[in-house]
Amino acid sequence: MSYRAPVAEMAFVMRHVAGLEAAVAEGLYGDLTTDLVESVLEEAGRFANDVIAPLNRIGDRHGTPLKDGQVTMPPGWKEAYAAWTAAGWNALPGPEEYGGQGLPTLVAAACSEMWNAAAMSFGLGPLLTMGAVEALDKHGSPELKDRYLAKLVSGEWTGTMNLTEPQAGSDLGVLRTRAERAGDGTYRITGTKIFITYGEHDLTDNIVHLVLARLPDAPAGTRGISLFLVPKILPDGTRNDLRCAGVEHKLGIHGSPTCTMAYGDNGGAIGWLVGEENRGLACMFTMMNNARLNVGLQGVAIAERAYQAALAYAAERRQGRAPGWNGEGMSPILEHADVQRMLLTMKAYTAASRAICYLTAASLDRARLCPEAEGRRRAGERASLLTPVAKAFSTDIGIEVASLGIQVHGGMGFIEETGAAQHLRDARIAAIYEGTNGIQAIDLVNRKLPLSGGETVRAEIAGMWSVLRRVTQKGGPGFGLTAPRLRGAVESLDRATSFLLAALGAGEQDRLLAGATPYLRLFGLARGGVSLAEEALAAQAAIGAGDNDPVQPGRIALCRFFAENLAVAAGGLEEAVMTGGDFGADARLALAS
Amino acid sequence: MSYRAPVAEMAFVMRHVAGLEAAVAEGLYGDLTTDLVESVLEEAGRFANDVIAPLNRIGDRHGTPLKDGQVTMPPGWKEAYAAWTAAGWNALPGPEEYGGQGLPTLVAAACSEMWNAAAMSFGLGPLLTMGAVEALDKHGSPELKDRYLAKLVSGEWTGTMNLTEPQAGSDLGVLRTRAERAGDGTYRITGTKIFITYGEHDLTDNIVHLVLARLPDAPAGTRGISLFLVPKILPDGTRNDLRCAGVEHKLGIHGSPTCTMAYGDNGGAIGWLVGEENRGLACMFTMMNNARLNVGLQGVAIAERAYQAALAYAAERRQGRAPGWNGEGMSPILEHADVQRMLLTMKAYTAASRAICYLTAASLDRARLCPEAEGRRRAGERASLLTPVAKAFSTDIGIEVASLGIQVHGGMGFIEETGAAQHLRDARIAAIYEGTNGIQAIDLVNRKLPLSGGETVRAEIAGMWSVLRRVTQKGGPGFGLTAPRLRGAVESLDRATSFLLAALGAGEQDRLLAGATPYLRLFGLARGGVSLAEEALAAQAAIGAGDNDPVQPGRIALCRFFAENLAVAAGGLEEAVMTGGDFGADARLALAS
């Protein structure tokens, strides 16, 4: 049940995959040092392990009951949240002019992984607040910023994103919540929003809702949506005209209240415009892009926690005698090859998805901080390319790894008290919210492949080839078939990419949309496998330099397992993209019953 | 939320994959006709749809509370069970000399799928009773049979299997429950069993427990285990010395009470030996083999129900405008290619696993009913070979399809009221109980591949080749790349099989155990794909004969989707078996933290 933040592993990925050392050397992060980063991670890890992790089970059991419009958070959560904000953790990535520590997104990403691994329902609240901070920082008026940003950055107040309505989910163009100009520069908001995470709670005195709504004279569709800031408590201290009308009974993340929010029961909730009228979707996408990476990190987080629990159980639980077991009595199930396969699969997938997410975070940093405009542009496009992969691949992995975690536990895994089942229940939402994984895949093929006329994805693949050349040249015997297997995966990605770019050029939407999901998975396998190879090469270099830590050969072995057992799915995915997507005309026939 | 038994599809699979027509023509099933089989399916389908399906949600919400040793089943369950047994459904596969209808296992399998799809927690009880019937019928003394079989066959009483103890799960050799000879031919049983499905309930007046225990002078390990019949109510009407000491709080199947059973608090529960002393495990395997097929059918069942729910939702829910959508406003999400891919994946996997299970059932029938001894032997070995695939492949598919079902529902899928989440929660146990899927894979490579010196698996693969020759020769344009893709999958299976048979011959347990799980998946993909091709060929023949039902080209399209998008995973699985299983020495390194 316990969680120990894998701080050393996180730091290793930051250095050798996400380019932390290079970025520090270039001065990208100012006077930040890798030592300072590691000490931040150490401290965050302690807080996550000691204070947040114990909340996980409590949140699952107690849920967030709603009574008379008030949501009660689970026991201990309010105190933990207060301690967490007091220690400055909410402010970690926030802008310095509003009291934030302005630390790199890369560091914030690792911390975000820890909070979410310790208790995903706990980590989810600040994830939304962080999105609100970004949207407000980029698009808010000076007045709004002065009034709200400092308190959102510190975590004294929390933020929400109000997009979904019953008829408007993936398609926001049809949302109906109305906003009317009050004549004094404010607006009156009326409508119902659903699935509002942390829409109501008792952790803080105020909640700052960012709400998408439509002005009376707005054009139809997505070009007629505006973004409003609608606080629960108005500046004069009175309650705004909004309430929580319901809390969902969900499969998982029971500690996170998912609210139906009713705006304007009594004439309209008072709201302030964020950004320009009818440009709300663009503002919202500012928050969603970062939120997508953070949801990807939730996938990594839950996978890591599920893996740790399964490993601990497998080391303790004894059944049968594995071949070669020389100990007394039954061997720990960890000695059985099939259990090892499950655990290695869990750990390798987790490591691969972490590498992709950290790489995305580092690209976001570079897009903001690189001194050259061209460097910023390229990094920005790289981050854009990787974001849907980080979100969808990692959250799919979160589900698969959590499910394997149950399997390792055998019958005990099905019993709720064990805790393994909660991980699967919690993980399941991450593939859905902040844009379903199908939407991510479509975003990848339709919006991200065409970036710079295909040059961005070409450059990403070229980078993979350069790592693989190093593996071929330098990889020692421990690498096994790493080089040929990863070459196979990147070749598949290469061909599938050319195929989809050609389809884009020819306007063949059918092929793009039908192949999007297997293509994203293929991308994740190749990028993840190559990143593990970078780790393995760094580990080999460390061994060569005299490092005797057994974790180093372990990194090589894990990379090898990934290449030989998981990356080998690439060929089948390539075929699904290139020749499997032709089902359009037949789909209706096959699905008719 | 509703379920409609896919009776026509079931009958089609029986005829064209499981060889029902051939078996009827050979007289294997006596005077049973295909018409009669179909009318049984129709009636079972009506009962499942109308009476059992509504119990599913109720069972999930109410659970099975335990108070003062008594378990209360959810509202309406007792009445439904009584109606179900009164209609003769429990007796369907039972031996005729004890009031059963003696219908083929193939027919019973289809019915079992229906009960479990309608409500898996409901279907689970009779599944256990059926296992008890078999064990007793095969191994019980005439006296025990006379006393218990008729009531178990009719369902007036239910049966249980008591294997697991806290320290003895997959490894039954270490179980500790004791049995002492009372001197009067009976035994006194003392010990605690866990995870006992339907160990206590209020559906029937009596519950017949089959309990594995160890005699005082028994040899250690699995050769010292005996099987006892221990009824809740003794023949004289008094309570036996056993009680339900707890009911588990589980991830799913809330309507099925999972009990801790305490035997012999007051000196020992009275039990009767089934079979010979110290030969209990062999008797128990009699029930487990059939139970394994039935658990595989639970995987098919939950996949079918999850698919139906997702399809209905996708036809109704509107979001966005799919390319080519000419209707008004937003298109049903069913029109979106990525949603079609999910639904086709769900349907194709479900159909493939159904085909494997029905084929296994038909082989069990032939093993029992074939007039020639050699035919019985061969069919018996075929059933043995297919059983672990039917169990593990189908239950993995159950989980994957249920998870996809949530994804199709988007945010609504995560809300418990929708019902999609329950399918995933319920499905998750089937990969664990009756031998985890890892145990199935090990059984497949270690016990089933060597059958008849490898001839049994070679014959199975030869049968696949003969279907593929027909596809190559006769498959029309609608088959697309079905032939080459399925050839690729069967070639992969062929090579992986030769590799494992060689490893068996060389006594290389490491390779076998490490490759078992990907090999089983590969087997399922190849066997499932080939079975869908048999359906597609039959559909093409029907079209050629003038059948205008759109379901026929739909079958061809579904087979093609499976071949082009799912069977293509075979190559990667082959590599995982042949070159990925070499992690033994490295696993401990990679898993060290």
From TrEMBL, chains A, B:
Residues of the Acyl-CoA oxidase/dehydrogenase middle domain: 161-262
Keywords, sorted A to Z: FAD, Flavoprotein, Oxidoreductase
Record-annotated Acetyl-CoA dehydrogenase-like C-terminal domain positions: 479-582
Gene3D superfamilies recorded: Acyl-CoA dehydrogenase/oxidase, N-terminal domain, Butyryl-CoA Dehydrogenase, subunit A, domain 2, Butyryl-CoA Dehydrogenase, subunit A, domain 3
Catalytic activity: 3-(methylsulfanyl)propanoyl-CoA + oxidized [electron-transfer flavoprotein] + H(+) = 3-(methylsulfanyl)acryloyl-CoA + reduced [electron-transfer flavoprotein]
Presence of the UniProt keyword Oxidoreductase in the record: yes
Pfam families registered for this protein in UniProt: Acyl-CoA_dh_1, Acyl-CoA_dh_C, Acyl-CoA_dh_M, Acyl-CoA_dh_N
E.C. code: 1.3.99.41
Domain of life (superkingdom): Bacteria
GO molecular function terms attached to this record: flavin adenine dinucleotide binding; oxidoreductase activity, acting on the CH-CH group of donors
Domain Acyl-CoA dehydrogenase/oxidase N-terminal span(s) in chain numbering: 38-156
Acyl-CoA dehydrogenase/oxidase C-terminal domain mapped to chain residues: 278-445
Protein purpose: Involved in the assimilation of dimethylsulphoniopropionate (DMSP), an important compound in the fixation of carbon in marine phytoplankton, by mediating the conversion of 3-(methylthio)propanoyl-CoA (MMPA-CoA) to 3-(methylthio)acryloyl-CoA (MTA-CoA).
Protein name per UniProt: 3-methylmercaptopropionyl-CoA dehydrogenase
